[in-house]
Amino acid sequence: MSGNSLHSKLNRFQGAILGDRPTPDLQDVPARYRQMAKAVDGRIVSGRAGSFCLVKTHYSRYHSHGHLTLGDIPGDGPFPVSAFTRKDEPGYVEPASLLFIDAETTGLGGAGTVAFLVGCGSVVEDGFEVRQYLIPDYSDEAAMLEALLSEFDDTRVIVSYNGAAFDLPLLQDRMIINRVARELAMGRHLDLLHPVRRLFRRRLGDCRLVNVEKKLFGFQRNNDIPGYIIPSVYFDWLSEQNPDLMGMILEHNRLDIVSLYYLAAYLARAFQTEGGILETVDDLYSLSRIYGWRKQNHRVVDLYRRIDALRDKPPAGDVLLFHAQAFKRVGAYEKAVALWERLSSASSKEGFWANVELAKHYEHRVKDIKTAYQYAKKADELAPQSRRQRQLLHKRLLRLQSKLSR
């Protein structure tokens, strides 16, 4: 078969698959699509695969989000990658390269779940912009996904909240099902749920985004639509063509994306200042734990000085024990002993370990066997945590008794 005839056959097949029809104009768009666009203050974008609604919202540098404004976020400074990762990863990300993403879906997962609304936010020259892609009907999903694909490229750093477990896998699956793309291009993905839990779960407990933004930024949502109602509102639109509540869904999505930007900047600032913006014992201790995982003990002991100076509440036993171990690792034994002694009378696992550490210290460093034996006996009275720990403690007691008898 000649090359020309093969080429003509391929063209005919392409026409059969894609449809040799012009891009529809607004006159070809159903009236209910225009009704939706008007209700959410957007515009209809039409293509060969269908139509979707695009809504753009601009936030100036003076936009307030609780007690912060966009102008409070340094726009010219990069964010350290280590602010968002468990390990101390080197490198920085520029705010301009960040793409904040959040999807509203018809369910919590499964083959039939569709992202009917996808919001994307990014830093622009004079503030922050949110672009929202909304499908008026299931048949327009491919058109929306094709347009959404332009938001992604190899230079983009995607930022989400629980997106690694939900949003991004769902979007990638829908891209494949609709034959739009096999994967989403990106430089890397930063899921803020995990650094938020590491740094703030001890104090906040509830790490849902609405609670985090309230407690960190003082931002209180008014008349916000609950997340569990969102799918039913979209189903009502599909069946009744009533767009009255769709605007609330888009506002909910916008607020999520704007909060992600503030949250990314807040996390970055916490690490850039080495805890300088943190004001509670719980948050400073959580940051100490992160530095401890990274073997940065000098930062751990520096943070304890701030914890000791705070008066919001006395440090708990696990806080004192953790920092005592850090003082020990850097050779500051006097400070470590002071903290162990504060814990030695506590009837807790921290009290047990403090007495064990004091027994070690007086036996091996101070060579005061009598005092070491007293602390070991005290540890034994506090019920060691496991059979193995009991065995080790009794072995220590026998050794100390032997030394005392000599």
Give a description of the structure.
The chain has 406 residues and is an alpha+beta fold. It has 2 domains: 23-272, Ribonuclease H-like superfamily/Ribonuclease H (Nucleotidyltransferase, domain 5); 281-405, Alpha Horseshoe (Serine Threonine Protein Phosphatase 5, Tetratricopeptide repeat), CATH 1.25.40. 50% of the residues lie in helices and 14% in strands. It contains 15 helices and 11 strands. The protein has helices at residues 3-18, 31-39, 141-148, 167-177, 193-204, 209-217, 230-240, 246-272, 281-293, 297-309, 317-329, 333-343, 349-365, 369-381, 387-405; strands at residues 43-47, 50-60, 64-65, 68-69, 79-80, 92-93, 98-105, 115-124, 127-134, 157-160, 188-191. The strands form 3 sheets. Strands 1-2-9-8-7-10-11 form a 7-stranded mixed beta sheet.
Number of DSSP helices? Answer: 15
Number of domains: 2
Give the N-to-C terminal Cα separation. Answer: 102 Å
Give the strand order, joined by hyphens, for the main sheet.
Answer: 1-2-9-8-7-10-11
Q: What Rg, in angstroms, do the CA atoms define?
A: 29 Å
Total strand count, please?
Answer: 11
**What does the main sheet amount to?**
7 strands, mixed
Report the sheet-strand fraction. 5-15%
CATH fold group of the largest domain: Nucleotidyltransferase, domain 5
Q: What is the residue-mean pLDDT, rounded to a whole number? A: 90
**CATH A-level architecture of the largest domain:** 2-Layer Sandwich
CATH homologous superfamily heading of the largest domain: Ribonuclease H-like superfamily/Ribonuclease H
Level of helix content? 40-55%
What is the element string, with H for helices and E for strands?
HHEEEEEEEEEHEHEHHHHHHHHHHH
CATH first level of the largest domain: which class? Alpha Beta
Low-confidence stretches: 7-24
Structural classification: alpha+beta
Overall shape: it is elongated
